[in-house]
Structures
1.
Amino acid sequence: MIIDSHCHLASSKFPEADIAELVGRARQQDVTQIITLATSLDDCPRNLQLAEQHAEIYAGIGIHPCDAHEAPEDYLDALTTYAQHPRCVAIGETGLDHFHPAPEGWSTEDYHRRQSQLLEEHFQLAARLDKNIVIHTRDQTGDASLQEALSIYRRYADQVQAVFHCFPFSLEAAQPIFELGGIISFTGITTFKNATTPLETATHCPAGSFMLETDAPYLAPVPHRGKRNEPAYTQNIAEHIAAARGETTECLAAHTTKTAKSFYKLP
Ligand SMILES: [Zn+2]
């Protein structure tokens, strides 16, 4: 059994008619639990609906940092209601994105400040509802967004566990996350020839401190690179990372599944 710990099935790239077959293909690849994450207030209902309709699917509720400027002042009321849905297993995807430019009408400073405020409020919501949190950080260069997210996480680490998804840095850079009790997760980027660091990190990352994810519809692993990604391809990521670690795919699947079940509190 393998868990796709992070994807976006409410994306317009996944038409309603495709979902049942997509879940079937995932099952055939032994991917039997799938976490679909909201990125805005608008796609929360669809993510929850998918989780209601399919026993394999669970939802995360949150606002992606690239949508921070769209969140209305009272967004937290709606988010709180969505997050109390019985199929909601985490708060996210949230975080800090210093990679994309500020939207029109926003200074970079104000945009980043709004993202930080939302991240802090997502942590507070997670603590209040006893859920863990899924964090995105991204910079043009360096790791300022990771460092700032860590400084916010530090204030809530005794109540909430965080995953820093699609982790791009060295194992050394992940140590502050582990020290706070957090974990990381790896996407299909680990299968790309031109991105050696994520695979290197995954190769030496201790069992229990990381999960597998597709981040579908984006970042399809080799041999599907460039196509629409989907949860079934978690199997390709598992095989690739297991080979690099010198363990069987079954062994990798077993410990990453245990980590994901514990993080998302899955049955
Ligand atoms: Zn994502």
Note: The mean pLDDT is 97.
2.
Amino acid sequence: MLLVPVTRADLVAYLPQGLNMAEIGVAKGGFSRVLLEKCAPARLYMIDPWEHQDVEHLAEDSNNPDQTAQNERFDQVSHEFSPELKTGQVVLLRAYSHLAAEQIEDRSLDAVYVDGDHSFDAVLRDLNAFAPKLRPGGLILGHDYTNHAVVEFGVIAAVNTFVQERDYKFLAITTLDAFPTYAIAPALEGAAKTFAHTALAGVPGVVELANYPAGYSFSPKYIHKASGGTAFIPSFSTAST
Ligand SMILES: C[S@@+](CC[C@H](N)C(=O)[O-])C[C@H]1O[C@@H](n2cnc3c(N)ncnc32)[C@H](O)[C@@H]1O
């Protein structure tokens, strides 16, 4: 696994252009715009129910606003992306991710960005629902490979469980964002191989952590900087320590 000193916006620029992509969890479309600008995908499925969820683990989540705000977000995204919707480059799927997956053909996607419900069960469900959608050489990326003081984050445990159960390759995490993005793939071939071995391995300051996640525990640290603000330190220990 590569520890890559870039932000997620810079990370996705290392993907090949013209891919078929999906983003799970769109909110106001901020990162969808980045994907369109940096990756020029042939197709981007933007998946979000834009529905307030009355569940305990999302009660304090600012991305789970009331239904009026969710409707406003959907209207704003529909308006902002109307040029791409008209050309068919963008497809909006207003649905929960595991149901949206039923509308996407198996082996039709090159890259999926997972950023919906961050609980352990939901992330694992997203990974399992979208793995069959990948073409050979495809890869899965996702946001917030970390812990959170307020909202229940099961991203680290879910991704590691999935990687180990399905024998995926852990390609990379970003280290310049306070909330890292991860990249994993079923095999080191095609776009996934070019992305990890050619593009990312050449980034100045990249570090490899071999065989991750086997034998490691990842405990992200956040420290208060003397100059103000918070710094993120990716901290790993061997599982036995
Ligand atoms: C963190 S926000 C997404 C932010 C966006 N990816 C970005 O970076 O600009 C999470 C979004 O996931 C959506 N969401 C929650 N549960 C979901 C599910 N089961 N399937 C798809 N989206 C979901 C929420 O409605 C919310 O808009």
Note: Residues 2-210 form a domain with the Rossmann fold fold (CATH 3.40.50.150).
3.
Amino acid sequence: MPVSLQDDLHRELNALGEQNSLRTPHALQADTAPINFCSNDYLGFGASTQALQTTATTTTTRDQLSGQSSRLVSGNTATHRHAESELAKFANAQDARIFSSGYAANLGTLSAICTEGDVIYSDAHNHASIIDGCRLSKAHVEIYRHNNPGNLAQRLQSTRSTFRRALVVTDAVFSMDGDLAPLKELRTLCDTHNAALMVDEAHSIGVLGPNGSGLCAQVGVQADIRMLGLGKSFGLWGGAIVGSSHLCSMLEQKARSYIYSTATPPILPTHILRTLEQIKTANPQRAHVLERAGHIAQTLKSQGWNVLHHGTPILSVILGDNATTMEMSQALWNKGIFVQGIRPPTVPKGTSRLRIVPTASHTDDEIRALTSAFAACRKALVQ
Ligand SMILES: Cc1ncc(COP(=O)(O)O)c(C=O)c1O
């Protein structure tokens, strides 16, 4: 039955509201914002108020903020190329390409390298940008059970031979649960079945591995394609794909989110180069963040919360339903603590949660404020 767009949007929004699923983000103001425990700025670089020297003076000129046109027209600068070459070196790869976001990087890459007649095996908990890239590729997609190499092996066994290219794709650190992909097992399966391996290192780059070089480096696995998120530990924005020079040349030919989008402004590669040096020497911050996450997880568990923690900076207090999750988030906000509620479809139904991320820039007092606020909420909840 034909409907009016405006009436139908209204109806749909009301339905989301009734399910406590409506998203209405807080508009943060630097001077009044509560202590933020839900950013992905793991090393605290993004929250730093330190003045940055970008040219001979500290001012940013307008041309540094303008991408001008796409990289393939006139937006390609020597600084972009320099940053890509340094990112590739850091990741022990031949080359890299910078996209305007991690989302654009995953979407553009998956749809550029796989198509009809190919098969993608994707972990059930992969990030939305991977899911959407798989869909856009038109390849046959097999969703294997989360972190379950046995299930992947069965699928490869029964379907791999009917397709041309095959790609296994996984997050390195899963964004919502903070658990790690079994990369060694995945690599072995890829080698056995002539499949390529793509690893999204959005939450692992800067945090795990030697000098923050990611989970692949930590476990000694060579992935064919890696996505390095630049909006998290780097404290910037964007995403880089690193891999072979053939791969990067092909992205330049076929990745539509790279080709048909204005280039990232030159100020981004300038800061990528600076931040790379900071990341390499941030071992104390990495250790600090991991130790803090462990401490918070222990404290909240001892208060009686259902806490998920897998030894990464991400931890979640599972509350189950949407209403309790959003009430708790508001109660914490009222106590000066910002922990956003995460609901379906971002996480599976029945696992709505408060996802907590300590960063290297939090003070000890701020960590105490977080655990005390949770303790007060617990008291109120069980009374
Ligand atoms: C695992 C993962 N991949 C990709 C992205 C997308 O990156 P971006 O925010 O830069 O678009 C995110 C988060 O946003 C993520 O968590």
Note: The CA atoms of residues 193 and 371 lie 48 Å apart.
